[in-house]
Amino acid sequence: MPCARYHNRMEAPPLPPARERVGPIDAILTRHYPEAACALTHANPLQLLIATILSAQCTDARVNLVTPALFARFRTAQDFATCDITELQQLVKSTGFYKNKAKHIRACCVILVETFGGEVPPSLDDLVVLPGVGRKTANVVLGNCFDIPGITVDTHVGRLSRRLGLTRHEDPVKVELELMELVPQPEWTAFSHRLILHGRAICFARKPRCEACPVAALCPKVGVATKAKPKAKPKSRQKRNADDTDATD
Ligand code: SF4
After folding, report:
1. 136 annotated active-site
2. 152 neighbors 136 (Cβ within 8 angstroms)
3. pLDDT (0 to 100) of residue 233
4. Predicted model pTM
5. Ligand 1 centroid distance, CA of 161 (Å)
């Protein structure tokens, strides 16, 4: 029998804590996005590292338009390390912030050549000291190229984690650490991909489609604006008179 308190007020009972919801949420998302994977086209760790640097403030689709020509022109870390910076800038220009990105890519590859024999190191600590590489980029590379699980906190993962009540943090590193506590380690990389796909398909930044969302029953929708009530139309003179009559009767 439903609790009278909630039944009478027609309110849903409170949701279980995040630790109890995250498993069922992930199971539902797994069914909806069975092929969840990295959307950046790449053939090796170096290509994914560079594609991920380019994806900052840019869509994966745009990066995927740029990288075929880029990776045809420069194949190794040595190629990038010794490239003409102006040529590199032109090749990545349409991804935005291209001067900074080109600078980071070349500087990054200089370190790869000088310190790591031209290879991308399979270590978070080694990756995050490379120019233009933060924990997000490092976790993308580790999870997708080296099978080292990592939570990738991009704009979608951050937003969805807060709406789903899995974290209250805005800082991506704090979100990552909190999700690492909640999600089983083997699922870290795939869970990130599923949240990203769900953010692109349904839980949009501006207007999430909660009515079509498969995890709606498990989501507190933190920070999601509910529909404003339509403004009452001004009463017509005839209706006002009728109301007045009712009031005096
Ligand atoms: S119910 Fe709404 S806010 Fe929650 S995950 Fe689904 S779309 Fe996003």
Report:
1. yes
2. yes
3. 56
4. 0.83
5. 10
Specify the pLDDT at position 243.
Answer: 34
Q: What's the pLDDT tens digit per position in 30-65?
A: 999 998 999 999 999 999 999 999 999 999 999 999
Low-confidence ranges of the chain (pLDDT < 70): 1-11, 227-249
Q: Provide DSSP, 5-68.
A: HHHHHT-PPPPPPHHHHHHHHHHHHHHH-TT----S--SSHHHHHHHHHHTTTS-HHHHHHHHH
Q: What are phi and psi of 69, to 5 degrees?
A: -70, -40
Indicate the domain borders of the chain.
Answer: 45-201
Q: What is the DSSP letter of 219?
A: -
Yes or no: say if 100 and 85 are a contact pair by the CB < 8 Å rule: no
Query: Could you confirm whether 154 is annotated as catalytic?
Result: yes
pLDDT at residue 225, rounded to an integer: 84
Locate 73 and state its tokens: 């022109």
CATH architecture of 45-201: Orthogonal Bundle (1.10)
CA angle 160, 105, 155 (to 5 degrees): 10
Query: CB under 6 Å to ligand 1: residues?
Result: 160, 163-164, 202-203, 208-210, 213, 215-216, 219, 221, 224
